């Protein structure tokens, strides 16, 4: 288990003592209170602070490792009051990434070959981590998933009926907004019309059978006998109140699924194989995503729209903030920068090693470019004993500084990208 529980009760005790001392000092300086009234108020404040601190002391706190797609991980400190949105923002900052709405926190369950996107409003500690056993191999992944808010990017693919969504491949942005507004009313939200044939894995076997399924607000129903929508012929396979929907990973190889487009519905505490896990398989990717999105809407309803709107608001704030930072850097940037300090470093290093040095100052000219870069670009060309280096340094926002450095070849090897970048800090 990639997390550690913490207990910081001594810190709370010290904080309580400080608060009580401050209250006592304030009451002693109040001449309008008698000694009896002062003692009564101190006693009531002690009770109030004690109750508040007891509540805070019971909050679960964990140190958690959050993995990324490249296999690396970051260690973060979490408590049970933090939402998944807060953890996502923390990971964006720790990894120095640009804010993107599709960045998500995922719960991965390797033993069952499945994962799910944890919704922004969910509590990562209470809703995910505390459901794991201590010896579990499950982990938290920070990654980009377009399915996170695909419902709101192309609502016609999810909110309309199957026949209508296939006919309306292209929707105007205004029409999308109208569709979302009609579907998510102030009083609640509708359930999309999702039905069709799915394969269901037989219990304890790797065989799959086809059944007709239909999505309802109370759960997922199927017809053991033919394609009947009659209530008397439908059987509730599983409800959504205490269960989550998971994406299947490599089930075609592991469980002999008919296709690679699979999903499961299970209780979050089930981390090993169980008869209570329902394995399902769709014919294609589009159909699979409709089912998963429909189940999420049936479970969370309007909360998904609130999550999306808050994410869009944070995205706008991020853009405004970084445009402001870029503008301040641009306005304060001179046309020519003399890197005398860097030249001193080069000269001293060269002298100590016996290398050739130059007495001319190193001069850097910058040019503006509007194409964003994700990393440093470094190029060196040889021209009559002189080296020319071009270094592009990314800055917050969309603008990039392009630097051209001219120094003798043997001195160039002591100049690093870090030294050039340090001149702008």
From TrEMBL:
Protein species of origin: Stichopus japonicus (Sea cucumber)
GO BP annotations, alphabetical order: signal transduction
Domain of life: Eukaryota
Record-given protein name: Putative ras-associated and pleckstrin-likey domains-containing protein 1 isoform X6
GO cellular component: cytosol; plasma membrane
Alphabetical list of SMART domains matching this protein: PH, RA
Domain spans labelled PH: 191-300
Domain Ras-associating residues, every copy: 60-147
